[in-house]
Amino acid sequence: MKNKTFADDPQIQKHRWWILVAVCLFTFMSTLDASIVNIALPVMSRDLHIPMNQAEWVVSIYLIVICALLLVFGKLGDTRGKIRIFKVGSVLFILGSLLCGFSAGLTFLLIARAIQAVGAAMTMATNNGIITEVFPFSERGRALGMIGSFVALGSIAGPGVGGLILAHLHWGYIFWINVPVGVVAWFIGQRILPRDITVTHAPIDRAGASLFAIIMVSLFAAVFIGQEIGFGQPLILGLFVVAVVALVVFVRLELRVSDPILALQLFKNKRFSISILCAFLIFVANFFFNVIAPFYLENARGMAANYAGYALMTFPIVQVVVAPIAGTVSDKIGPELLTFIGLVLISISQVGYMLANLGTPLWVFMFFIGLVGLGNGIFMSPNNSIVMSSVPVQNLGVAGGINALARELGMIIGISIATTVLFSAMGHYAGHRVTAYLPAHPEIFIAGMRVAFMVSLAICLVATVITGWRLFRRPARG
């Protein structure tokens, strides 16, 4: 009885694809809400009568809360039950989404957004672990590939979906659209999600969880506020110092406690560590594209926002189609080769972006957008499969939390580095400080874009080399 698993239960196996649907819907919505709000910020700023820098906290607080809580909810999933945590998270996410749509002032919106983020963190931290437990090994890559598809679709589709909603409806519908979809997913989950059977009941490392939250909050508050007021200000330097000190104390504590919030011993597994690192690097690179491509298409090329949104949707559409196929193939041939092929394609796409200019035919640029979607689709599913298959079943929640954390950190750091590199390079070529697109000098933007994508290419090449080293070293170990 102790060794019973979901894969042995015929009733659960009968409903496993419906379980995947419920999990994927919340995965899509929680990742979509990290990127969809950006396009609505100017409208929110006018409607709520607040400056743009205050409106940007609607995005920032969501990302900070998620990053601060992913590990603790991953651990709670292992100790109290992943499905239980997922169900509570889905209710909080729906409630937060409902509250976010009301124009009741910035404070109310930020509180609602924090509630939504808590729910999102609970579902993000447990989704991969649930699917890894439910699906047999022979189908795991395909199932994790579907989750990877919805992560990609949610992460990248925000500007396009948000633009379509704003063209016809009040900005509140950006959040309210989650409510009916979430209720349907919740009802499916209530009917077919089983009771947890892998529960350790271990005590929670509260000191570690608190320290990790301090690290995340101080680090990203420093990043977001620093972009606004400058990184040399005493407040920003102080926040960075707090983050570093808390990190040192956190690592020392986690190495001493018997049941840490972050199981550092997982990183002794090279397959796990390399896959987490590469996922982080690729999300950093992807968000270079997310930041820069709208400037290129709308400002430099003069495309209407809705048409630029359609062009950018090439990325997630290709990835959504490819990821489940790559997951199925990885179930048959193993994931390592596919992760390497995917990273090579992503690297080639960065070269294409780097060489683009004002005269580049649009179909050529869209070809490279599709290529990065193809590369991500081939890379993400097998990479998730490696991460989740490299840990014992009692640590699936923690592994899922770390995997989601790598994604969210990659998103935040990618946006921060991309904007910093782009505007610094533009400032270098312009001969003065630049903090926005210069309408009279598109050539300065193109020069800055080239530098930014050189950095992005270097990041992709690091991931490719590391993964290639793992792939070509594998036969020597066997």
Automatic annotation (TrEMBL):
UniProt entry tagged with the keyword Transmembrane helix: yes
Protein name (Swiss-Prot/TrEMBL): MFS transporter
Ranges annotated as spanning the membrane: 20-43, 55-73, 85-104, 110-131, 143-167, 173-194, 206-225, 231-251, 272-295, 307-325, 337-356, 362-379, 409-431, 451-472
Positions of the Major facilitator superfamily (MFS) profile domain: 19-475
Lineage: Bacteria, Bacillati, Bacillota, Bacilli, Lactobacillales
Domain of life where this protein originates: Bacteria
Keyword Cell membrane: yes
Entry's family note: Belongs to the major facilitator superfamily. EmrB family.
Gene3D superfamilies: MFS general substrate transporter like domains, Multidrug resistance protein D
Keywords: Cell membrane, Membrane, Transmembrane, Transmembrane helix, Transport
Annotated source species: Levilactobacillus angrenensis
